Every structure is written in C-alpha cells, then in structure tokens.
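for the writeup, i need someone to sanity check this before i put it in the appendix. the sequnce is what the collaborator sent (i think, or maybe the updated version? ugh). structure was predicted straight from it, no edits. if anything looks off just tell me and ill rerun, i have time this weekend
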Amino acid sequence: MFKSLPKAHVIIYIIYLVVWSIAAIDPKYPDDWLLENVLVFAMTPLVIWLDIKFRFTTTSMIFLLIFASCHSLGSHYTYAEMEYFNTITQWFGFERNHYDRVVHFLFGLLLFHPIFELTTRMISSVKVALLFTITLIISIATIYEMIEWLAVLLFNPDLGMAFLGIQGDIWDAHKDTLGAIIGAVLNLLFYRYYENLMNTKR
C-alpha cells in the first residue's frame, strides 16, 4: 500500500506513529485519551487513502504531521491540563490554559492546505476553491464541537470537563470555532501561493 507513496510521505507517517506511540504511554486520564483518539483511529486510514489516491504535497503532509502531533500531545495530558503550556499561561497571566485554543487555531491554519488541495480536484476557480475551503473548515470546526458534546453524553458523561476542556468558560465552543476560522482566513494572505498551487495541480 505504501509502495506507491513518495519516500518523504512514508517517513512522515512513521514519525507520526512514533509520536502517537509515545503519547499513548501512560496518559494522564486513560479514558479521556481513548475518547480523544476515536477520530485519530477513524481519520488516519482516510488520510492515507486520500494520499494514495490524490497524492498530497509534502507541504500538506508536514502540516498534517504538526497538527496531528499537537493533538496527540493534548490527548496525553488533556487539552485543559497540557503542562508544557502552563509556563505560557503563567507568563502572560492567563486565567486558563489556552492550549486547546492554539490547536483549534492550528486546525484552521494548517489543515487549510490539504483541504484546498482536495478541493482543487473539483473546482477550477481559485477564488471559489478558497471560499469553499474556508466554508468547509468552519463547518468541520462547528460539527466537531457538537460531536465532542455528543461523545461525552453517549460514552462517558463523567469525562465531561476533562474531555471538553471548557475550564469554566461557557463560550469555549464558540471561541474554539473562532480560532479555527481565524487560522483558515489567514491563509488568504497567501492567495498567490494557492493560485500557483492550483495551476500546478492541473
């Protein structure tokens, strides 16, 4: 299966497997870790299939690796208690750990690239493709917040606070979604780059 992929892609998959394996060792809350990784188990085969079928650029693969690694780190400690972010929290005097906000922002910023690549397979206008990609990211970010809520209700209500990581903020879901939107919109600053990317994909 992997023989048809570029060597760089295979190396990236191996790196993520190593990162994921390390993060899976003695997680802070095992039940939360399992719940956090349900989407990983579902999405990893899909990404591999899409990569084989449509061949992501190496840039997209690196962005996917960074985002997935950040998620694995968050699932090890839980997003609300990611201890390596505590220094930043204390330094700036934040009232809460904002690691979850950063990862949602990175979702919009980094996943924009691979999603745009897939979009160009169906849309020939760069402006429409960019708009569609932003719309799709907003939709995914919003749906994900609802999936989080439903997952807690259906699988383990006792994990509510740890899994959702709202840390007392009733607007947590809204702010997380906004972070993803800001990350996605920032990609518009690189309009010429995406225009060239679309041309090379044709």
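Residues 2-201 form one domain. The chain is about 75% helix and 0% strand.
thx in advance!!
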